[in-house]
TrEMBL record:
Organism classification: unclassified sequences, metagenomes, ecological metagenomes
Residue ranges occupied by any Endonuclease NucS N-terminal PH-like domain in the UniProt entry: 2-87
Entry-linked Gene3D superfamilies: 2.70.180.20
GO molecular function (one): endonuclease activity
Protein name: Endonuclease NucS N-terminal PH-like domain-containing protein
Native source organism of the sequence: marine sediment metagenome
């Protein structure tokens, strides 16, 4: 069960969840489907663990904005505690701006003799 109080309020009834508590304090609660967590706390969150009435209780608190989340487990299938080491830099290519820049720098890639007269106009989103 997950009980969140803060910028909003939410209550998630019993179910099987994956909970990740990252080294920077992020707390993520995932259900069996979907990519995004159903509940989460940002980095800088403090987390405490207790056993209450034969259940594992995880309490996380964040001060700015003030919010707290209580996660209660009646049954556990797995617990993993580890410290991850990862200093790799994330590099991404193939974004729209990469494609546009490639076409502008080498218009013959699209069609021989192609001349770029102007770049797309920047507009506000919305």
């Amino acid at each position: 069960m997950v009980d969140y109080r803060g910028r909003a309020q939410s209550l998630l009834d019993w179910g099987e969840r994956i909970v990740m508590i990252k080294q920077d304090g992020n707390v993520l609660v995932h259900q069996p489907e979907m990519r995004e967590p159903v509940n989460w706390q940002p980095s800088g969150t403090t987390t405490e663990f207790q056993v209450e009435n034969n259940s594992l209780v995880i309490r996380s608190r964040h001060s700015h904005p003030p919010e707290k989340m209580k996660i209660t487990f009646r049954n556990l299938k797995m617990i993993v505690a580890t410290s991850l080491r990862d200093k790799a830099e994330f590099v991404i290519a193939g974004m729209e701006t990469d494609v546009v820049n490639q076409i502008i720098s080498e218009p013959d890639t699209i069609e021989e003799g192609l001349r770029i007269s102007k770049r797309e106009k920047q507009v506000k989103s919305g």
